[in-house]
């Protein structure tokens, strides 16, 4: 039983390490809204296409996203429901709607969401 918990914690730590990079987190936040092609994802990044592609490769190799090719376009989607749950939790904690009030009565006026 202790080994099972350790294995699960190790897997979760690997996913969190991947999510810790802002570019990869931004990609997953966009994909939370549904499948997107690479061109659309790249529009929201300051990275070169080559550097951005490396981040997509990390997400794909970790099994967090899947791809679908249509003609010359490659589309990405979240491929693990646990990742989608994590992204939802992150957006709920850090990306409150404009003008909403957080716990304790503090206003989040002017806060923008990560997702586009």
Describe the overall structure:
This protein has five helices and three strands, in the order H-H-E-H-H-E-E-H. Helices cover 52% and strands 12% of the residues. With 116 residues, it is an alpha+beta fold. The protein has helices spanning 2-19, 22-31, 38-42, 49-61, 81-94, and strands spanning 36-37, 65-70, 73-78.
Which descriptors would you attach to this protein?
alpha+beta; disordered C terminus; 5 helices; 116 residues; 3-stranded antiparallel beta sheet
Summarize the structure.
The chain is an alpha+beta fold and 116 residues long.
Q: Give the overall shape, derived from the CA principal axes.
A: globular
Mean pLDDT: 84
Main beta sheet? 3 strands, antiparallel
Number of strands: 3
Q: Which helices and strands, and how do they pair?
A:
Layout: H1 2-19, H2 22-31, E1 36-37, H3 38-42, H4 49-61, E2 65-70, E3 73-78, H5 81-94
Antiparallel strand pairs: 1-3, 2-3
């Amino acid at each position: 039983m202790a080994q099972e918990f350790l294995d699960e914690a190790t897997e979760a730590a690997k996913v969190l390490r991947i999510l810790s990079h802002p570019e990869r987190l931004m990609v997953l936040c966009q994909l939370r809204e549904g499948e997107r092609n690479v061109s659309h994802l790249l529009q929201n990044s300051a990275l070169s296409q080559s550097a951005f592609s490396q981040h997509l490769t990390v997400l794909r190799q970790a099994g967090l996203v899947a791809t679908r090719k249509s003609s010359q376009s490659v589309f990405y989607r979240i491929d693990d429901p646990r990742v989608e749950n994590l992204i939802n939790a992150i957006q709920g904690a850090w990306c409150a709607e404009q003008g909403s009030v957080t716990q304790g009565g503090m206003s989040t006026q002017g806060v923008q969401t990560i997702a586009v």
